[in-house]
Structures are given as C-alpha cells and as structure tokens.
C-alpha cells in the first residue's frame, strides 16, 4: 500500500517538475538578458538565482504533495509556485535596493 502512495506522489512530482523546468529555462534567459544589459562581467550570474528558485519551489511542492494536497494540473502548479517564488525574490530585491539607496 505504501508503494502505491509513493508511486502516486512520484507521478505528481514528475508533472510538477516539468512546470519548474519550463519556468527555469525562461528564468535563466531572463537573468542572462538582465546580466548582459547591466554590463556585468559575470557570465554565469544568471544560474544561481534559477537554481535557488528551483530548489525552493521543489521543496514547497514536495511538501504539499506529501501532505496530500490535491492540484488539478501539476504543470501549472509548478509554473505558478516558481512564479510566486520569483516574484517574492524580486520584491525583496526592490525593498533592499530602496533601503540601500535611500
């Protein structure tokens, strides 16, 4: 019985991971463009935020799956959670820049 639950959770996670990867690719290109336009010499500067976003989103989704939370579309859930994590990071960055430049 435990294997059926584990298999079901793994199947849900695989679908959610597709959404995380889709958002990660878009996020990586966005970070690369922003790094390029800012004139930064760090070539791989866009990779760190993408990886952090992935692992935070992964942790949240796996936690919700293990609690038995039901989602209609796991791909959209993965995209949504990644977008919210990205928005929170962006918001905190704006607040930090506002405080530092004030």
How would you briefly describe this protein structure?
The chain is mostly helical and 102 residues long. The protein has 3 helices and no strands.
For this entry, give a set of tags.
102 residues, mainly alpha
Can you describe this structure?
With 102 residues, the protein is an all-alpha fold. It has 3 helices and no strands. Helix 1 (2-38) packs antiparallel against helix 2. The longest helix has 37 residues, at 2-38.
Please render the helix and strand layout as text.
Blueprint: H1 2-38, H2 47-66, H3 74-101
Helix pairs in contact: 1-2, 1-3, 2-3
- Count the DSSP helices: 3
Number of strands: 0
Q: Low-confidence spans: pLDDT under 50, at least 5 residues? A: none
Radius of gyration: 16 Å
Cα separation of the termini: 59 Å
User: What's the helix-strand series?
Assistant: HHH
């Amino acid at each position: 019985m435990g294997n059926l639950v584990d298999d079901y959770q793994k199947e849900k996670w695989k679908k959610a991971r597709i959404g995380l990867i889709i958002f990660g690719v878009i996020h990586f290109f966005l970070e690369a463009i922003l790094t390029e336009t800012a004139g930064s010499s760090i070539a791989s500067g866009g990779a760190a935020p993408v990886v952090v976003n992935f692992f935070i989103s992964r942790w949240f989704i796996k936690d919700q799956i293990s609690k038995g939370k039901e989602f209609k579309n796991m791909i959209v859930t993965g995209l949504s959670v990644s977008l919210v994590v990205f928005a929170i990071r962006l918001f905190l960055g704006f607040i930090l820049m506002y405080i530092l430049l004030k």
